[in-house]
Amino acid sequence: MPKLTVEDLKRIKAQERAAFSLREGKFRAKVTVHMGTCGLAAGARDVMDALLEEINNANVTDVMVTSSGCAGLCAKEPMATVEVAGQPPVKYVFLNKDKIKRIFKEHIQGGNPVEEYALVVGSETAY
């Protein structure tokens, strides 16, 4: 097993903090980065790393970050689903580091979905 780096430990700390907040009911947002084989091949790991870095840099403790397998839209990877309390979920597609950073600032922190990166909101509405 490879040795853990400081960055690995920071990532683990952020994930555990988010999991604890979820159990306590203190989170206000949940982000699921879709990391099936197709997502990973398209760059989902970079998207996840950039998101965790933004959360850490902003010292945010009420956002839960999770991963999932394939969402079934392989041609639109990397993808993430953002759920903010009181708002319908938004599925974002064709992501990269810069796009997830903008989504973090505008949607997760500001409450305003970034329509130009969104595929759908809720289960039926499309941007």
Short description:
This protein has a single domain (6-126), classed as 3-Layer(aba) Sandwich (Glutaredoxin), CATH 3.40.30. Helices cover 41% and strands 21% of the residues.
Characterization of the model:
There is one protein chain. The protein is of the alpha+beta class. The chain has a single domain, classed as Glutaredoxin (3-Layer(aba) Sandwich), CATH 3.40.30. 41% of the residues lie in helices and 21% in strands. It is built from four helices and six strands; from the N terminus they run αβααβββαββ. It has a six-stranded mixed beta sheet with strand order 2-1-3-4-5-6. A hairpin with a 5-residue loop joins β3 and β4. The chain is globular and about 40 Å long. The model has no long low-confidence stretch (mean pLDDT 86).
Which SSEs are present, and which pair or pack?
Elements: H1 6-24, E1 29-34, H2 37-42, H3 44-57, E2 63-68, E3 79-84, E4 90-92, H4 97-109, E5 118-121, E6 125-126
Parallel strand pairs: 1-2
Antiparallel strand pairs: 1-3, 3-4, 4-5, 5-6
Helix pairs in contact: 3-4
CATH topology tier name: Glutaredoxin
Radius of gyration: 14 Å
Q: What is the H level of CATH, i.e. the homologous superfamily?
A: Glutaredoxin
Uncertain parts? none
Helix content: 40-55%
General shape = globular
- CATH second-level architecture: 3-Layer(aba) Sandwich
Structure characteristics:
globular, 127 residues, 6 strands, alpha+beta, 4 helices, six-stranded mixed beta sheet, Glutaredoxin, single chain
